[in-house]
Write a structure and sequence with these properties.
There is one protein chain. The protein has helices at about 5-25, 35-60, 70-95, 105-110, 115-140, 145-155. It is mainly alpha-helical. The longest helix is centred in the middle third of the chain and has 26 residues, at about 70-95. The protein is globular and about 55 Å long. The relative contact order is 0.10.
Length: about 160
């Protein structure tokens, strides 16, 4: 979403998740692939939200665009929060979760998930830095060979 439209960013993130689930299901990896539709809907909604968040953090604020070093980590934090809130709300709603359908049960569900959100945040920050950093390096002049120049040299 950072480089594309919000819609394309959301659809790309959802498609990547669907491909990952399909490969995981085919490979027989536990908890990947087809699982409870309510949980899948929450996970896919969170993935779509991450694409929209990417688009939002790339937009100017009060006429000024934040530098990438500030906006990308902020987007990673927001995407982590969206996933945490949506997926754990779905867990709380699930009939087999064991959490009571009360405000106290919802709080208990969110508190129980805190240890997991740390790893999600760390991985989102790491991969955001890796992918955005690699893309920025490739955009530098001379970073990647010009395919036309290489083809002419080889002819």
């Amino acid at each position: 979403g950072y480089y594309w439209s919000a819609l394309f960013g959301a659809l790309f993130a959802i498609a990547a998740m669907a491909l990952s689930d399909a490969i995981g299901h085919w490979a027989g990896i536990p908890s990947m692939g087809a699982y409870d539709w309510r949980m899948m809907a929450a996970v896919y909604a969170a993935m779509g939200a991450s694409g929209i968040i990417g688009w939002l953090v790339a937009r100017p604020v009060r006429g000024r665009r934040l530098p990438m070093w500030a906006s990308v980590p902020g987007g990673a934090v927001m995407a982590t929060l969206a996933f945490y809130l949506l997926s754990n709300f779905a867990v709380w709603l699930h009939p087999m979760s064991g959490y009571p359908r009360t405000m106290a049960g919802l709080v208990e569900c969110y508190v129980a998930a805190i240890p997991f959100v740390r790893n999600t945040l760390l991985s989102n920050l790491f991969f955001s830095a890796a992918f955005f950093g690699a893309y920025a390096l490739l955009q530098q002049p001379g970073a990647a060979p010009d395919p036309v120049a290489v083809r002419k040299r080889n002819d």
